[in-house]
C-alpha cells in the first residue's frame, strides 16, 4: 500500500520503519516543530533498540522516503502519530485531503487525542469511501520495535467495514501468530487506551500506599505483595512499590484521562489521588535520607544510580530523579549520578550546577565518599553490585533502594544499612 506517516513521535518513527520493512511504500513527514534534521540526532531515537538501523534500511531500500511536506496524491493510508498538543495540525492535515484525493482512503489516528477526536477527523474528510479509525499507540519505550512488530494486542476503533479490512491488510504481516485486533467503536478504543494507563497507575500507587503503611506497622511489604499477587483475581503485574513513575507517554496519558473526566463533568477523586500519591513518592528517598540524618544534610554527598524514567530508555520526562535532585540541591547536598543512557538529557538541566557531578563510565565512582546511595532506575548493571567495594567507598554505607531490587537481609549481612520502599532488614536473630 501507499502510506503517508505524519508526526515526530516515537510511534511515527516505528510505524514508518516497520510498515516499509514489510513492503509498503511509505512517505514519512515529521511534524514541522521537529523536522528530520533535528529528529535524526535525538537521543531517544538513537538509543531505541534497532530503530535507527531499521529506518536506515527502509531508506536504502527505497520503500521509506523522508519528506518535508506530506504526500497527498494516491495515498491509501494516512497514519497520524502526533503529540496531544498537535490536534490543530492533525485537523489542518486532514482538511487538505479532500481537495487532493477523491479515491478511497483511511485515516489511522495513532495519536492520543481527546475521546471523540477520530470522529471529528472523519467529519473533515466529507467524501464517501474516506474514513477515519482509531488505533491508539500502545508502544513501550525501550522495546518499541518489538511491541509494534510482535504485538500482544491492537485496539482498533472502527465502525466502517471497508476501513477495518484496509487496516487489517496494512498490518497483516504483524498479525500472523494470532488475531491481536480487538475491534470496537472508535470512542471505546480511545477511552480504553486511557483506561488501561489509569488502571496501571492505580495499581502502582496503591502498592506505594501499602508500602508506606507497611513501614508504619513494621511489616515487610514484600510479604503483602506476594500474598496479593497469589490471588488469581489480582495477579502480580504492576504490584511493585517504588519511588514513583514517570515518562512522557504514561504521565501524559494520565493527564489526558483526567482532562476527559473533567470535560465530561465527572471529576475523579480516585485519579487525583493516584497522581498525588505518585508525586509524593518521588520524594520518598529524600525523606528517608532526611530521617536517617535527622535533617542535617548540608554538604553531605549522595550517589544516585539511574535517571531514566525506566530501564531501556534515554528519557527523563517526569522522571522521579528530577524531583529527587531538586530536593537534595535545595538542602545543599552534593549529588553524584550515573545512568547508562540518560546522562545527556540530565546534563541539559544540571551541567552548570556546582553540586552535581556526572559519572559517565564507572557507576562505583559516583559512590566515592557518599553518605547514601539511592537506587532510582533499576538498570540491570545495578542489580548485583560489589557490596564490599561499596562499603569501602562510602562514608556512610546507607542504601536507599527505590525499586526494591535488593535483598534487605543480605545487604545488611554485608555491613551496609538498607532501606527500601516498605522494606528493611530484619534485626539480628529475628
Automatic annotation (TrEMBL):
Domain UDP-glucose/GDP-mannose dehydrogenase C-terminal residue range list: 303-408
Annotated catalysed reactions: UDP-alpha-D-glucose + 2 NAD(+) + H2O = UDP-alpha-D-glucuronate + 2 NADH + 3 H(+)
Pathway: Nucleotide-sugar biosynthesis; UDP-alpha-D-glucuronate biosynthesis; UDP-alpha-D-glucuronate from UDP-alpha-D-glucose: step 1/1
EC number: 1.1.1.22
Record keyword Oxidoreductase present: yes
Gene3D superfamilies, per database record: Cytochrome c1, transmembrane anchor, C-terminal, NAD(P)-binding Rossmann-like Domain
SMART domains in alphabetical order: UDPG_MGDP_dh_C (SM00984)
Keywords linked to the UniProt accession: NAD, Oxidoreductase
Similarity comment: Belongs to the UDP-glucose/GDP-mannose dehydrogenase family.
Protein name: UDP-glucose 6-dehydrogenase
Protein's organism: Chromohalobacter canadensis
Upper taxonomic lineage: Bacteria, Pseudomonadati, Pseudomonadota, Gammaproteobacteria, Oceanospirillales
Amino acid at each position: 500500500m501507499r502510506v503517508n506517516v505524519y508526526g515526530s513521535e516515537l510511534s511515527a518513527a516505528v510505524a514508518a520503519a516497520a510498515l516499509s520493512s514489510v513492503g509498503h511504500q511509505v512517505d514519512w513527514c515529521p511534524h514541522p516543530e521537529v523536522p528530520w534534521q533535528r529528529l535524526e540526532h535525538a537521543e531517544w531515537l538513537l538509543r531505541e533498540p534497532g530503530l535507527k538501523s531499521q529506518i536506515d534500511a527502509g531508506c536504502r531500500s527505497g520503500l521509506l522516503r523522508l519528506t518535508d511536506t506530506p504526500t497527498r496524491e494516491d495515498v491509501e493510508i494516512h497514519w497520524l502519530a502526533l503529540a496531544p498538543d498537535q490536534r490543530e495540525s492533525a485537523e489542518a492535515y486532514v482538511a487538505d485531503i479532500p481537495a487532493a484525493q477523491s479515491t478511497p482512503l483511511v485515516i489511522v489516528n495513532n495519536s492520543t487525542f481527546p475521546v471523540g477526536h477520530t470522529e471529528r477527523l472523519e467529519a473533515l474528510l466529507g467524501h464517501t469511501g474516506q474514513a477515519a479509525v482509531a488505533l491508539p499507540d500502545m508502544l513501550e519505550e525501550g522495546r518499541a520495535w518489538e511491541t509494534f512488530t510482535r504485538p500482544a494486542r491492537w485496539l482498533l476503533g472502527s465502525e466502517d467495514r471497508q476501513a477495518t479490512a484496509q487496516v487489517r491488510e496494512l498490518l497483516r504481516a504483524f498479525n500472523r501468530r494470532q488475531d491481536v485486533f480487538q475491534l470496537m467503536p472508535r470512542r471505546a478504543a480511545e477511552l480504553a487506551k486511557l483506561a488501561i494507563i489509569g488502571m496501571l497507575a492505580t495499581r502502582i500507587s496503591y502498592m506505594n500506599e501499602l508500602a508506606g503503611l507497611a513501614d508504619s506497622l513494621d511489616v515487610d511489604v514484600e510479604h503483602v505483595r506476594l500474598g496479593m499477587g497469589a490471588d488469581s483475581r489480582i495477579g502480580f503485574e504492576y504490584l511493585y512499590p517504588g519511588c514513583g513513575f514517570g515518562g512522557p507517554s504514561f504521565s501524559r496519558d494520565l493527564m489526558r484521562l483526567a482532562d476527559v473526566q473533567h470535560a465530561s463533568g465527572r471529576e475523579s477523586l480516585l485519579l487525583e489521588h493516584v497522581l498525588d500519591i505518585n508525586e509524593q513518592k518521588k520524594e520518598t528517598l529524600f525523606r528517608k535520607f532526611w530521617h536517617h540524618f535527622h535533617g542535617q544534610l548540608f554538604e553531605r554527598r549522595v550517589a544516585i544510580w539511574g535517571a531514566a524514567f525506566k530501564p531501556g530508555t534515554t528519557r527523563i520526562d517526569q522522571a522521579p530523579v528530577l524531583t529527587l535532585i531538586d530536593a537534595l540541591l535545595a538542602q545543599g547536598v552534593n549529588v553524584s549520578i550515573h545512568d547508562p543512557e540518560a546522562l545527556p538529557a540530565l546534563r541539559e538541566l544540571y551541567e552548570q550546577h556546582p553540586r552535581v557531578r556526572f559519572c559517565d563510565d564507572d557507576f562505583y565512582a559516583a559512590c566515592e565518599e557518599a553518605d547514601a546511595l539511592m537506587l532510582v532506575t533499576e538498570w540491570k548493571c545495578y542489580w548485583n553490585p560489589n557490596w564490599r567495594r561499596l562499603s569501602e567507598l562510602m562514608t556512610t554505607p546507607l542504601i536507599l533502594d527505590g525499586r526494591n531490587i535488593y535483598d534487605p537481609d543480605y545487604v545488611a549481612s554485608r555491613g551496609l544499612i538498607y532501606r527500601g520502599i516498605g522494606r528493611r532488614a530484619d534485626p539480628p536473630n529475628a
